[in-house]
Each structure stands twice: as structure tokens, then as C-alpha cells.
Amino acid sequence: MAKYPRIRQQNIAVFGESGSGKTVLVSSFYGRTQEGSYKNDLWDLVADKAGQGVRLYQNYLGMQHNAQAPMTNRFTNTTYDFSVKLKAGEGDEEEKRPFDELRLTWHDYPGEWFEDDPSSEEEALRRIDTFRTLLSSDVALLLVDGQKLLDYRGEEERYLKSLFHNFRQGLAQLKDPLLGGDGPLIEFPRIWILSLSKADLFPDWDVNTFRDLVILKAADEIEQLRSTIVDMIVTPDALSIGEDFMLLSSAKFELKADSAEPLKIDLKQRIGLDLVLPIASLLPLERRVLWEKKMELPWKVADTLADGADVIAAALVGVKFTGFEKLVRMVTKNNQKAEFLAKTLPAVLAAAITIVGPKLKEMNEDARAKHLYLRAMLTQFKIDLDQAVTENVLRKQK
User: Fold this and answer.
1) Cα 15 from Cα 95, distance rounded (Å)
2) Backbone torsions φ then ψ of 320, nearest 5 degrees
3) What are the extents of the domains in the chain?
4) Which helix H or strand E contains 80, and what residues bound it?
5) Which string of DSSP letters, residue by residue, matches 29-56?
6) Alpha carbon distance 144, 165 (integer Å)
7) What phi and psi, each to the nearest 5 degrees, are found at residue 252?
8) Distance separating the N- and C-terminal Cα atoms of the chain
9) Which residues pair with 109 in a beta bridge?
């Protein structure tokens, strides 16, 4: 039996008020990969829960063929588990790569829980337990509903201030139960991407237009939200909120005249949705390197931030993993601040995120030609992130 990990687990938390499009997003994210015409030469996406996969694909087909948006799951917390299964490699490639399968857990937190008080003690406890399940997420997407921005055109601050206030109040109510008597949390989502859902409603906008509007209309509320989170975590400087933005659209909706009902849903016109896997996999790695350059990041925080960054970085840059992993486990087990941790690991992480442009493309083409599917997938993820920044779909903290 192999002594190295075969599965790499990544988590992402998605927050949005009722009607902000969370169910449509996850249905489109999964559904497109299940069509017979969909081709991916590197990996296959599988729903770990078969019934859940069927429902998501049914939602997708309903949008595609009947222009019918899926029903919202009010007050229901849902965790979606997906496996990104790599294609079989050639020769001993499968034995050398650090993992064969990337698992993505998509935590969908009910928007109503940020808008309404708990109706009972039981519901209050359920909210706390549900939030605890997503604490392992490095990245959180906080959805700004594009339709509501249209509804409040000219006075967008009314909607935006309310949105961030509700999230801040919801988190403040969870603070004491989550912290208990143990003090601030080590593990907590530290990268909060403000995401414009239904971005297809704004064809002339890029991510900078969205960012400027949010900052202009609700900068104080974002800072208050940040302050609430700061009080909940150790090493609060390792937190990004109000610095990362993206555009998101699961499809282009054509509405009936004088109606909010869709006439046609074009699922081929997506914005940002294909960045979910690259963001969950590589953005925490990038952010860890950035923060370690700016501050003395405690090892206990670095170890939970971008969990598995060492594995992903080694696979991305082509470091022989078996010896690399042995060193990581040895110094971690012995809790040593060894030279390896001080120099070798940061160097590998930094090398992984600084590969750009022609060199990155060359690495990707070489990995594909040699059927090194893991390295090809990760370099493609990096290419996709860089391209999204260039095309002004994604704006990252600098």
C-alpha cells in the first residue's frame, strides 16, 4: 500500500442571501461536466452522493431545456461533495504523484440564517453546528446579488449596507458559541471573496467596476464585518476581506417581457464559475506565501491555512514527493522549527506561485504530453487564475 496520500481535500464556503443564486451556481458548476458533449482530457467530476448528483443534474437540465430555475432550498444547509478524479497515468506516473483525487466540499450556508433570528433553541444550535462544519474552508464566497443591485439602482448603498450588516450580525451571534472558553479560532475562512452573482445582468462591467461600486457604497460596513471576524481568530493580519473580488454567473438569463420569469437560459455563457476549483486549490497557497512574506506567521496558523499546500506545491513544480513528504511529516511531528521549514518549504511554495506566462504554459504542455495528469491539472488551474485576472473577472489581494 502506498505511503503517500492519494486524496487531497479542499473546502469552499458559499454565503448568500435567499435568492442570490447559490443553488443555480452549484447546479451549473456540476451539471455542465455531466453532459455527453463535455470533454476534459485531465479529469472527471463525480458527485460523491449519487442522489445529490442526480438532483443537481436535473436542475441543470431543467434550466437548459425548460428555462426553469431550480427551487431555492430555504433554511436548508447543504454540503455538496465532489471528487475530481484524475485520468490514469502512464508508467509509474501514478506511483510518483502525491495524490490521485482532489475532493471539493462545497458548503452552502442558508442565507435566511443571516436575515432572520432562530425560531427555536434547536435551530440556534443547528446554525452553530452547521457553521462549524465549514471552518475548514480557507476560502469563502460572499455573494452580492446582481438582481438586487439592479432593483436598487442609484441607491445601491441601501442594499449593500443591509447585506454586510446582516452578515456581520449573524457572525456576531455565532461568536460566543463558536469560541466557547477556548479563545480565538486558529482554523477559520481567511479569504473572503466578494462575488457578484448574476453578473450577466451587467454585460458592460468588469471586476473593477464591481469593486469600485462596493467600496464606494459600503466601505464602512465591510470594515465592520472585518472587525467582527478579527475578534474571532488568532493572527488577524492573516485575513483578506474587501480585497478580493470576482464576477460570477452560472448562465445568461433572458427574461419574459414584463416578468421575472426566464424565457431562455443559456448555460454556455458562464462567468467565473470555472474558477471555483482553481480558487479552492491554489488561492490559499498563494495567500499563504504572500502573508508569510509580510508577517511572522505562526506555524499553527500556517499549517491550517492552505492545508496541504506542501502537497499541491510539490505536485505543481514537480518536486519528487516521497522524500519531500517524509521531511514535512518528520518536522511537523517533532514540532521543530527546522531549517527545512524555514527555508525549503517556503521556497517550494513560492516557486509554485511565481511560475507565470510562457514558462507556465510550457510546463502545462509538457505535463500533458507526458500524461502527468496531476501536474497538468494544477498548471492549468494556475493558467486559469492568471487569465481571469488579466480578463478582469477576478481581482486578488496584492
Assistant:
1) 38
2) -60, 120
3) 7-286
4) strand 78-86
5) HHHGGGSTT---SSEEEEESSHHHHHHH
6) 13
7) -100, 120
8) 42
9) 15
Calpha distance 159→141 (Å, rounded): 18
Q: Tell me: the pLDDT tens digits for 272-298?
A: 999 999 999 999 988 988 888 888 878
| pTM > 0.85: yes or no | yes
DSSP code for 342: I
Task: Please tell me whether residue 341 adopts helix, strand or coil conformation.
Answer: helix
C-alpha cell at 376: 497538468
**b/e burial code for range 285-299 (CB count within 10 A of at least 16 → b):** bbbbbbbbeeeebee
Burial of 15 (0-12, 13-18, 19+ CB in 10 A): buried
Label residue 342 by pLDDT band (50, 70, 90): very low
Closest CA to 376 of 87, 75, 172, 21: 87
pLDDT given at position 76 = 65
Look at the chain and count its residues: 398
For residue 163, give the nearest of 210, 217, 120 by alpha carbon: 217
- CATH class of this structure's domain 7-286: alpha beta
| Chain position carrying cell 507565470 | 356
